[in-house]
Amino acid sequence: MILDLIKVVILSIVEGITEFLPVSSTGHMILANEFVKLSPENFSYNFMIIVQLGAILSVIVIYFNKLNPFSKEKNPKGLIPSHVSQMTGFKKIVNNIYFWFKNNKTANLWLKIVFAVLPAAVLGVLFDDIIEEKLFGPMPVAAALIVYGIIIIILEKANEGKENFKFTSVFDLDWKTAFLIGCFQVLAMWPGTSRSAATIIGAMILGLNRTAAADFSFFLAIPTMIGASLLKILKASGMTSWQWFLIGLGFVLSFIVAYVVIKKFLDYIKKNDFKVFGYYRIALGILVLLYFAIF
Fold first, then answer.
1. 207's torsion region: left (phi>0), alpha (psi -120 to 50) or beta?
2. Which of 41, 137, 149, 213 shows its CA 20 to 30 Å from the CA of 173?
């Protein structure tokens, strides 16, 4: 039992550090699990997915004021036109909802986030078992680490000195751009790609500056990761109370670590680009390929 606790602590720290950096948390968890194995295998996979809920809670806490559409400053007078108040019945309800979402920027952003989640949600439900069986291994992870590391470096070099971005705030995103970023998120179904890397790369290609791209990546993670974790919880069967305790511990630890990392990351990208993460991915991918080729 003590050994299980040590393993959970290590894996939870890895999850918290890597979840929102463009380096692939799932990839790191798979690699870490090669050396710090949780058993049985089905519990190990469940742990890696469900423990992400702790990390995502840190995003909700950090961005709560920015993402809360019900705060007073998000609901000023005039949000709903005065003529709507004169309506009655179902028509009034429909118009109230329509104008609230239209004029409340945060509520409108949430609609776009949910819309952007659809591609990954649909494909995730359809191919979850296939992905687990075929791609959850060190070699596919290493390949994805290297390929997307190269893409990050190329993209950052192309954006050097660029000042005119189409979008500098997530609140300015149009529906098409939000959905296309969600399509990029589908690429992260290949472990080692990194959901953050896929969405940030996609967002920057589509005209978002670095800060807006990171913000939308974080926001998009909320329904995506909650959905993936809940799907895994619903599918989980036969887990013992001890295993659920380990998952709970991982939840708490990943929340604490992710909270600190996100704060540092947001400060970092104000002055720096993502190239360091690209170089790190390439180096790690090569090391993984060499290790498993030799051993």
1. left
2. 149
What pLDDT was estimated at residue 76?
Answer: 58
Cα 240 from chain centroid (whole Å)? 28
Q: What is the spatial distance between Cα 113 and Cα 127, in angstroms, rounded to a whole number?
A: 22
Phi, psi (deg, nearest 5) at residue 32: -60, -35
Report the distance separating Cα 225 and Cα 217, nearest Å: 12
Give pLDDT tens digits for 148-180.
999 999 988 888 877 788 999 999 999 999 999
Burial (Cβ within 10 Å: 0-12, 13-18, ≥19) of residue 224: buried
Alpha-carbon distances of 156 from 67, 90, 149, 205, rounded to whole Å: 28, 51, 11, 10
Q: What is the pLDDT of residue 150?
A: 95
Supply 108's token pair: 């409108």
Q: Average per-residue pLDDT in the chain?
A: 85
For the whole model, what pTM was predicted? 0.82
- Which residues touch 263 (CB under 8 Å, ≥6 apart)? 62
The tally of CA atoms less than 13 A away on the side-chain side of residue 3 is: 5
Rounded CA separation 251/245 (Å) = 10
Q: Average pLDDT in the 200-224 region?
A: 91
User: Across the strands, what pairs with 208?
Assistant: 167
Q: Which two tokens stand for residue 214?
A: 């990171």
Backbone φ and ψ of 167, nearest 5°:
-130, 130
Short-list 249, 180, 254, CA closest to 216? 180
**H/E run at residue 277:** helix 275-294
Angle of CA points 56, 28, 136, to nearest 5°: 100
208 three-state secondary structure: strand
Per-residue confidence (pLDDT) for residue 75, from 0 to 100: 60
Q: How far is Cα 48 from Cα 250, in angstroms, rounded to an integer?
A: 9
Q: Is 208 exposed, middle or buried (0-12, 13-18, 19+ CB in 10 A)?
A: buried
